[in-house]
Amino acid sequence: MLNQIADHQAEWDVCEKSKLSDVQVGQSRIESQLKDLQAKLSSNENWPEPKTDVTIPPNFTKIGSNFYHIENATRQNWYGAANMCRRMGAHLASIQNYDEQSGIESHLKDREVYWLDTTDLATEGQFVHSSSGKRANYLRWGYGEPDNYQNLQHCNFLYNGYYYDSHCNTKSLYICQAGHGN
Fold it and tell me: What is the domain partition of the chain in residue ranges?
């Protein structure tokens, strides 16, 4: 019985040594690949030249670090505005902070309403950017807003520096944003 145990122990040792050898070979291969990648990364010849000329999309203006199309002529409901932005390769504006909002506002008509990307259509009271599905962290609400009047207001617009929730079928001007959304 002891001889059988000793024989099995010897078999296990051979098996473990074989597995260890396979692991060491794999590790050596990975280390070699890592060195090759590090060498490629450290040489500048593989990196493209930095892009210095940024093309502004047609009908868009660079404001801050983003490009915007501010529609000051044609009014659309929220869905139509979102569709018009998509047709331009953009989305309704997803404003992230006061500085961004302030830069945009300097291009807006006074006392006009502009649709934004923010909505709580999916879940009442949980405002998200429709372009990304991410929660809207910057919401500069007007007094008493959001009020979801008659349980029908789920789309947000910007008016004189503040956000208001409104019925999505209201026709308003809108702001499209090309590039990163949230």
Answer: 1-47, 61-178
Q: What is the pLDDT of residues 91-147, one digit of tens each?
A: 999 999 999 999 999 999 999 999 999 999 999 999 999 999 999 999 999 999 999
Report the phi/psi class of residue 78: left, alpha or beta, with left for phi > 0 and alpha for psi in -120 to 50: alpha
Architecture of the domain spanning 61-178: Roll (3.10)
Residue 77, phi-psi category: left (phi > 0), alpha (psi -120 to 50), beta (remainder): beta
CA atoms within 13 A on the CB side of 125: 0
pLDDT, one tens digit per residue, over 26-68 is: 777 777 877 777 776 666 555 565 555 556 677 899 998 899 9
d(CA 38, CA 40) in angstroms, rounded, equals 5
Strand 113-119 to strand 172-178: parallel, antiparallel, or no bridges (unpaired)?
parallel
Q: Where are the alpha helices (DSSP H) in 43-77?
A: none
